[in-house]
Structures are given as structure tokens and as C-alpha cells.
């Protein structure tokens, strides 16, 4: 059962990203109006703004929540060439009816990029408190907070040159003894070159190196997402471009002893019939949700034969229930992603 809930965000410009926290109980939105808004559900299940502030001097492209083990922290990426880390603080007002006030404080401003910072992602908590950014100058930068009790101190650990403008990045959340840290990056450049790259960290060499290029994706990439690993011996990567693409990355060892991947195309769908802007996985990595300029959310699931199929499509600005394979109605004004909340309700975000 899907209950449709409309949220009037009161952002004054285009909303570029909407991100839920680890538990799906809080939500953050960012916009070209240079503000970030944090939302919480009240006792009636309605989303209300708990905090709103001007965060940057340019459009804010992406947001990322840190793992709650490190506290309530949020990272943002902006056109103003910076990425910021924010921490929520709680202060008690003295008095007979003392109340708690929540405020988000900028703990650091990362200014190494020479151009727009296009994406920002906290790494898996098993790596500690690390943060990766991508920029249109073609560089991935990885920062680490050496002391999680002092979030004002971040060190630049790695510069990873990619030689093409980058639009999005994704950490592989499956970091185990046999899986080295991995990052996938996508490019929105206008060239006819490959647009998806896989980087892996070598503990022996203490550096990141490109281990794979997915040559079949030559159209602009707008989003990229590794699936959580629920016991697979390979990795699954979703790519949002003009289509929805799903790849299996099977680790192999070549003759030189270096780690490589056999890239297998698991699925490619053009059901949106237009640009796809966002892809996101459920917690088990068995279901994918995509959103596009047709105004539809489409849900994909793998069957027992390891084949992917669209199981549901949903138009957020409609009061109808989700349908399977419903024909798209193109709405060019819907250029931002709309995600399913963790749970049974669907939330529609409207800009006012």
C-alpha cells in the first residue's frame, strides 16, 4: 500500500538532491537557492522542517549523511567550488520551561577544488570517517577526519585524477577482508568517450588506481550507485544515463597478479524514454529505484533467474496507485530525483 504525501518545501529554486539518513527517519534537501533544509516526521507522520539555513554561495548539488556512529553529520557539495561538513548540535535553554534547540554548525569547508564540486559521499563506516568528493575539474578527492571528536580537522589523503569532468561518485559499501575499498565515478562530458570508471585502493602501494573502464557507457552519466552486498561474490553497479544500466563486476586476478574485473552487462532499460537522473538501492541491494524526466519512479527487481524486471512504476504527481508498465507522460519540468522513503509511504517533494 502506497500513501502519497505532498511536501511543500518552500525552496525558492530548483531542488537538486533529497537524501535520507541511515534510519530513514530524517531527510535533507538542497537547492539552487543555496539553502539546506532538514526534515523530520511529527507525531502525525507528516514531514516538517526542523532546520533551514543558507549553506553555500552557489547552487548546492548533492548531500550525504554520515553514519550515526559518528553523530548527526551532513556533507554538501556546491557550485561555489567547496564541500562542507555540518554537525548538528543541541543546546538547552535555561529556565523554568527549559527547551532544547538544534542547530547545524559548519565544521569545515573543503576548498581544494578549482571548479564546481559535483558530488560528495561519506565512505563505509568500516573505513573510519572518510569523505570523497568529485569535481568538474576531473578529480576525486578523499578526506579523512583523524579525530572523530574534532570534525573541524580534515586531511586530504588522496587526489585521484580522472582527466574528464566528473558528475557523480559512489563508494562500494561492501568492504571486507577480500574486498579492497572501491569507488565508481561517472562523467557528464560531451565527448564520445567512456563515462564510467572504477577505482580500487591498494593497501600495498598506499594509493588509488583505476582498475576498470566501462566502455559501453558513452552518454552523459548523471548518477551512479553500488548495491549493498548481501552475500554475492561479485559487485553490482547501477548507472543513470539516457537509460538505466546495471552491471555485474566479477573480481578476477590477471596473469600479473593484479586485481581486475570482468564487467558483465546485467540489464539495460529505456522505460523512462528520456534522461534518467537518479538511481538508488534498497538496503539489501535486491531492488533498484530510478527516476527520470518522464516524471516516473520505476522499481526494478532481480528474479530467481538473475534477470532484472520493472515490477512497478509510479507517477508522484498522480493520486493513482502504482502500476506495472504504465505508459510515461513526459514532463520536462521534473528534473530532480524523487525517492521512496524507507518504509511503505511514498513522499512527493514539490517546489514552491
The CATH superfamily of the domain at 162-330 is YVTN repeat-like/Quinoprotein amine dehydrogenase
Number of helices: 0
Percent strand equals over 45%
Order of adjacent strands in the largest pleated sheet: 2-3-4-5
- In angstroms, what separates the terminal alpha carbons? 28 Å
Task: Kindly state the number of beta strands.
Answer: 26
Average pLDDT score: 85
**pLDDT < 50 runs, ≥5 residues:** 324-348
The main sheet comes to: 4 strands, antiparallel
Overall form: globular
Rg, rounded, reads: 20 Å
Overall CATH class of the domain at 162-330: Mainly Beta
Helices and strands: which structural class? mainly beta
Going by CATH, the architecture of the domain at 162-330 would be 7 Propeller
Order of helices and strands: EEEEEEEEEEEEEEEEEEEEEEEEEE
Helix content: under 10%
The CATH topology of the domain at 162-330 comes to Methylamine Dehydrogenase, Chain H
GO molecular function, one term: structural molecule activity
WD repeats: 8-40, 53-87, 269-303
Keywords: Cell cycle, Cell division, Lysosome, Mitosis, Nucleus, Protein transport, Repeat, Transport, WD repeat
Subcellular location: Lysosome; Nucleus envelope
Structure in words:
A hairpin with a 5-residue loop joins strand 20 (244-253) and strand 21 (259-269). This protein is 0% helix and 50% strand. It contains no helices and 26 strands. It has a 4-stranded antiparallel sheet, with no helix packed on it. The protein has a 4-stranded antiparallel sheet with strand order 6-7-8-9, with no helix packed on it. The protein is mainly beta and 352 residues long. It has a domain at 162-330: YVTN repeat-like/Quinoprotein amine dehydrogenase (Methylamine Dehydrogenase, Chain H), CATH 2.130.10. The protein is globular.
Amino acid at each position: 500500500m502506497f500513501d502519497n504525501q505532498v511536501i511543500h518545501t518552500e525552496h525558492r529554486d530548483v531542488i537538486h538532491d533529497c537524501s535520507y539518513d541511515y534510519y530513514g527517519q530524517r531527510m535533507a534537501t538542497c537547492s539552487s537557492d543555496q539553502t539546506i533544509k532538514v526534515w523530520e516526521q511529527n507525531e502525525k507522520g507528516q514531514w516538517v522542517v526542523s532546520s533551514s539555513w543558507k549553506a553555500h554561495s552557489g547552487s548546492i548539488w548533492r548531500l550525504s549523511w554520515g553514519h550515526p556512529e559518528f553523530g548527526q553529520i551532513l556533507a554538501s557539495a556546491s557550485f561555489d567550488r567547496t564541500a562542507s561538513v555540518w554537525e548538528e548540535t543541541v543546546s538547552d535553554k535555561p529556565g523554568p520551561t527549559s527547551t532544547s534547540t538544534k542547530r547545524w554548525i559548519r565544521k569545515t569547508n573543503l576548498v581544494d577544488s578549482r571548479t564546481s564540486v559535483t558530488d560528495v559521499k561519506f565512505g563505509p563506516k568500516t573505513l573510519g570517517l572518510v569523505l570523497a568528493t568529485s569535481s568538474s575539474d576531473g578529480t576525486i578527492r578523499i578526506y579523512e577526519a583523524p579525530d572523530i571528536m574534532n570534525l573541524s580537522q580534515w586531511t586530504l589523503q588522496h587526489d585521484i585524477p580522472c582527466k574528464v569532468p566528473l558528475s557523480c561518485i559512489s563508494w562500494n559499501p561492501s568492504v571486507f577482508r577480500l574486498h579492497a575499498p572501491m569507488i565508481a565515478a561517472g562523467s557528464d562530458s560531451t565527448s564520445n568517450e567512456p563515462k564510467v570508471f572504477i577505482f580500487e585502493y591498494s593497501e600495498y602501494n598506499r594509493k588509488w588506481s583505476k582498475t576498470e573502464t566501462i566502455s559501453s557507457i558513452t552518454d552523459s552519466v548523471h548518477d551512479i550507485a553500488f548495491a549493498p552486498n548481501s552475500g554475492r561474490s561479485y559487485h553490482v553497479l547501477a548507472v543513470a544515463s539516457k537509460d538505466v544500466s546495471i552491471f555485474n563486476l566479477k573480481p578476477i586476478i590477471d596473469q600479473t597478479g593484479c586485481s581486475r574485473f570482468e564487467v558483465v552487462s546485467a540489464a539495460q532499460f529505456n522505460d523512462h524514454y528520456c534522461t534518467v537522473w537518479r538511481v538508488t538501492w534498497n538496503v539489501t541491494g535486491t531492488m533498484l529505484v530510478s527516476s527520470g524526466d518522464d516524471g516516473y519512479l520505476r522499481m526494478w527487481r532481480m528474479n530467481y533467474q538473475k534477470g532484472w524486471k520493472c515490477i512497478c512504476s509510479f507517477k508522484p504527481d498522480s493520486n493513482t496507485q502504482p502500476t506495472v508498465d504504465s505508459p510515461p507522460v513526459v514532463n520536462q519540468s521534473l528534473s530532480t530525483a524523487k525517492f521512496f522513503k524507507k518504509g511503505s509511504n511514498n513522499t512527493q517533494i514539490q517546489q514552491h
